[in-house]
Amino acid sequence: MTPASDRPAAPPVVGDPVRPRPGGAPCILVADDDRAIRTVIDKALARSGFEVRLFGTVRALMQAVETGAGDVAVLDVVMPDGNGLDILETLAQRRPDLPVVVISAQNTLATAVKATERGAFDYLAKPFDINDVTAVIGRALEQGGGPVAGGPGGGDELPLLGRSSAMQALYRAMARLMATDLTVLITGESGTGKELVAQALHDLGKRQAGPFVPVNLAAIPKDLIESDLFGHEKGAFTGAVQRAQGRFAQAEGGTLFLDEIGDMPLDAQTRLLRVLQQGEYTRVGGAERCRTDVRVVAATNRDLTRLIRDGGFREDLFYRLNVVPLRVPPLRDRLEDIEELAGHFLARAVDDGLPRKRLDDGAVAALKRHRWPGNVRELENLMRRLAALYPQDVLGADVVAEELAEASPAVGTAETRDAEAMGLGDTVRTHLARYFASHGDGLPPPGLYARVLAEVEAPLIELALGATRGNQLRAAEILGLNRNTLRKKIRALDLSATDHRDG
Length: 503
Ligand SMILES: Nc1ncnc2c1ncn2[C@@H]1O[C@H](COP(=O)(O)OP(=O)(O)OP(=O)(O)O)[C@@H](O)[C@H]1O
What we know:
Elements: E1 27-31, H1 35-47, E2 51-55, H2 58-66, E3 72-76, E4 78-79, E5 82-83, H3 84-94, E6 100-104, H4 109-117, E7 122-125, H5 130-143, H6 165-177, E8 184-187, H7 194-204, E9 212-216, H8 225-230, H9 247-250, E10 255-259, H10 266-278, E11 280-282, E12 289-291, E13 295-300, H11 304-309, H12 315-321, E14 324-327, H13 338-351, E15 358-359, H14 361-369, H15 375-389, E16 394-395, H16 397-407, H17 419-437, H18 448-467, H19 472-479, H20 483-492
Parallel strand pairs: 1-2, 1-3, 3-6, 6-7, 8-13, 8-14, 9-10, 10-13, 15-16
Antiparallel strand pairs: 4-5, 11-12
Helix pairs in contact: 1-5, 2-3, 4-6, 10-12, 13-15, 14-16, 18-19, 19-20
The structure holds adenosine-5'-triphosphate (ATP).
């Protein structure tokens, strides 16, 4: 052990020759081209009782490593004589016993993935909390060398943007999962990017050559979910005129993404649990056992533990799915990502033929003040509207504020309510507030309650029918109405003449 007081005041020589370990304290090799960072790490590690050796070049580090020095290495990515990521594989070959912690200011998912693929023990984004560095070194010493995961490489073009520390935690967790087949449960509010995370797990993982099959369970009528997932035999139910393959069969060799898993009916949950446990299923109405080789990634924006309490979700399925939980942070917890995301969506709007726009500093500040109940999707939609609606090339805080007020009024309790329902509720509230305000100091005429409900009912049903192209069964499902009740309402509201298929 080397007490801090015994150490020289000036940082030790970069690439200093091998010294014997005093008292057998673990020796940490730190390679970073930034002297200030070397010094910070040196002090913290020395305080924790480690022997530290510092290097300013890849070459110096490699020389020390070749002599067998070091119990853990901390390695920066951008070094004056090379890229830290490029030497990871060589390091792993020469010194499989040496865990390497990569630190980088290039805080992208690509860096996290490459670091992990190439055998890094872990990855920390700069600026890091020095306590995290000591903690990860402690873990590395406990667990020893060897990669956390290894697998096929991915390209640089990754869809997930964001360099905030909240996203770094997610990237690290994802990077560890890339080469595994473990079932993953992705949680997070609506619009946070859960599907994108699932897609990235597939695209960068070992099943990348297989299909990625996304299924939105909330969009399928509940009584069709089992046949949709597992397929059915001819005659299994009315309308089953021939045998059909399900999504599990489509996803063979790849990834099945079960979005909105909280909406899965209990019977289908039982079947899914069996597949996850036994790796086989039967088609609806059939007895033949079908083997399946599919990685299941599920997602939900609902609180599954509450659903379990209420009897709506099987606890055993939850534990089976939740082998590795990934939480996608809400946008309000990563405000530092907003500028990059907004720029990305404005650029994408140009690809779609909309005029090129940029945001000034005031606009970015206004975006950062918003609570984002609809998360990244809300930001994406806002950028498209700004690109489409405003003539000026540079957009300021005024237009951002105007559009935000128009589309999604300020929300104070985003954490406690379902984001989707909240967006809807607030829109209704805004319109009602406008209606009250339109009477000035006076009051609206009596009978408002019934009138508002009557006003809402017809467009709600029309929109549901439009969205489902006139499919009353699906519309009833969305609305949460019995199909006969919906039929009666369509008649009573005289909606029958509408051509719902075009809706
Ligand atoms: N980190 C990100 N970088 C770039 N685009 C993102 C990011 N996160 C989300 N998006 C974009 O935001 C939109 C919403 O993302 P996505 O559909 O993955 O969210 P979700 O959490 O699955 O939503 P829901 O719960 O409603 O299904 C998509 O257009 C997606 O491309």
